[in-house]
Amino acid sequence: MERRRLLACVIVICLISLCVARELNVKSKYALPAIYNHTLATILVEYSSAVYMSDLTELFTWTCERCNGLTKGFEMIELIVDVQACLQAFVGVAKDLDAIVIAFRGTQESSIQNWIEDLYWKQLDCNYPGTSDAMVHHGFYSAYHNTTVRPGILSAVKSARELYGDLQIMVTGHSMGGAMAAFCGLDLRVNFGVHNVQVMTFGQPRIGNAAFATYYSKLVPFTTRVTNEHDMVPHLPPYFYLFPGKTYHHFPREVWLHNLGFGTLVYQIETVCDSSGEDPTCSRSVSGNSIADHLTYYGVEMGCDAEVACKMVMHPALAAYSKTDEAGNFVLSRDGAISVLRINRESDAQSTTS
C-alpha cells in the first residue's frame, strides 16, 4: 500500500511539473517575452538538426529527410559553408513563426571525442570587446567572428529583411553551433541594433566567464539553453566553483530535460532553471558523462548524417552558381540558384526520355 501511495505521488508530481514547464498552446507567432515555450523548442531543434545535413542540394532546396515535420515550408535565403574551418550555417524565413531563422552546425560526430577532450584544457583567452573583465573562449569566438560565416549571415539577414520586413530573428544551434548562435545573437544586438532577437541553443558548452555571462544576459535576455540529462558538453569547459570570477560561467536561462519515474512509467521533465546560469539543482546536479545524451534532443537526432567529417554533396548546377572565394569557402544564395537547378534537372529529364 505504501509503495502505491509513493508511486501515485510521483505521478502527480510529474504531471504538475509537465503542466508548469510546458507551453502547450500552439501559436502562429511566438512573442519574445516567453522564457520558455516547449512547442517552439521542438521546432527550433529540427532546424538545429537539419543544418548538419551533408547533401547541400537537398538542404538548400529544403527537401532533405530532416527538412520535414515542424519545419515544412521553410524558405532558404543563404547557405554558408566555410570549408577551411569545417563550418556550416543557413539563414531563411519560417512563415509559421513569422521569423528569420539562423542555424549553425555543431561539431561533427567523427571529431566530437577529440573536441570534448580539448575542452577540458581550454582556458579563457580572449578579452571581449566593449566590456571590462569579460573574457571568452577564443575558439568559439573566432569560429563566428573570424571566418566567412559572419559576413554570410549578415548579408542574408539584410536580404531577408528587405524581402519580408522587420521580422524577429531566432538564432539556434547545437553543441559548438550553439556557441556560435550565442555570439551571433549578441553581434546582432550590439553591432546592428536588432532588438527582436531570440536565441535558443541545445547542448551548448560554456563560452565565457561570469562577467561575460552578465553582459550577455542583459543584452540578449530572450535566450534559452536547453540541456539534456547527462549531456557532457554543457559541463565544458569546466566550472571551478572555488574561482567564480575566473572560471567559465554559463549565461541564463537553462532548461534542463531529465527523466523522472519508475520502470515503464517515465516522464520527461522540463525544468526552467534560475537566473544564475549555474543553477545547482539543474544539469549541474548530475555528472556530465554522456555523449549519447548530447546527440538526441526531444527525440530528434543531432549530428551529421555522414561519417566523413566535412563531407559535402552538391548538384553541379548549384556548384557552378555558388559564390566561392580563393580558399574554397562558398555561399549559396536563393537568387537565381533554384531556377538554375530546375533548368538543369529538366534538361537531365529530357535527355533521359529522348
UniProtKB/TrEMBL annotation:
InterPro entries: AB_hydrolase_fold (IPR029058), Fungal_lipase-type (IPR002921), Sec_MonoDiacylglyc_Lipase (IPR051218). Residues 1-21 form the signal peptide. One of its GO terms (molecular function) is hydrolase activity. GO terms for biological process: lipid metabolic process. It comes from the Eukaryota. Transmembrane segments: none annotated. Residues 101-238 form the Fungal lipase-type domain. This is Fungal lipase-type domain-containing protein. Keywords: Hydrolase, Signal.
